[in-house]
Write a sequence for this structure.
């Protein structure tokens, strides 16, 4: 239930920021891809934030994972929760034997871009066809 609450809130926020209804691609809605042994989905507190990790997605090769759905509730922002979730998902990736992570984000989420750049992520060429993505990043673990 907490995961569903986080995703619903996140999708509502994306729709507001994008100025159109956010409609995740079916490939990005595969919950099984973000559960062991292929990935994880982490939730902070009482649905205050979340982040997912999956392997086997478009543009993702063996030894690589993709971070998806980093979101923090507006009431919890500015407290370092996003950084703690990202550190936790990187730890989970290492546990799964992954050595590189990728993610994509939208130009409508400049605070996410800044977070990634401050914490060791490098901008790379597009690795997928996500219609909502404008920026792609990678980090070696």
């Amino acid at each position: 239930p907490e995961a569903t609450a986080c995703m619903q809130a996140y999708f509502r926020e994306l729709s507001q920021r994008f100025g159109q209804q956010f409609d995740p691609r079916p490939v990005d809605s595969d919950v099984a891809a973000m559960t062991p042994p292929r990935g994880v989905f982490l939730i902070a507190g009482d649905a205050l934030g979340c982040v997912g990790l999956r392997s086997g997605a478009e543009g993702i090769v063996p030894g690589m994972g993709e971070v998806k759905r980093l979101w923090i509730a507006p009431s919890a922002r500015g407290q370092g929760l996003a950084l703690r979730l990202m550190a936790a998902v990187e730890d989970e990736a290492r546990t799964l034997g992954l050595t590189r992570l990728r993610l994509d984000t939208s130009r409508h989420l400049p605070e996410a871009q800044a977070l990634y750049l401050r914490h060791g992520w490098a901008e790379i060429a597009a690795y997928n066809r996500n219609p909502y993505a404008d920026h792609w990043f990678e980090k070696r673990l």
Observations:
- The first strand starts at residue 39 and ends at 44.
- Strands lie at 39-44, 49-54, 64-72, 100-105, 122-124, 135-140.
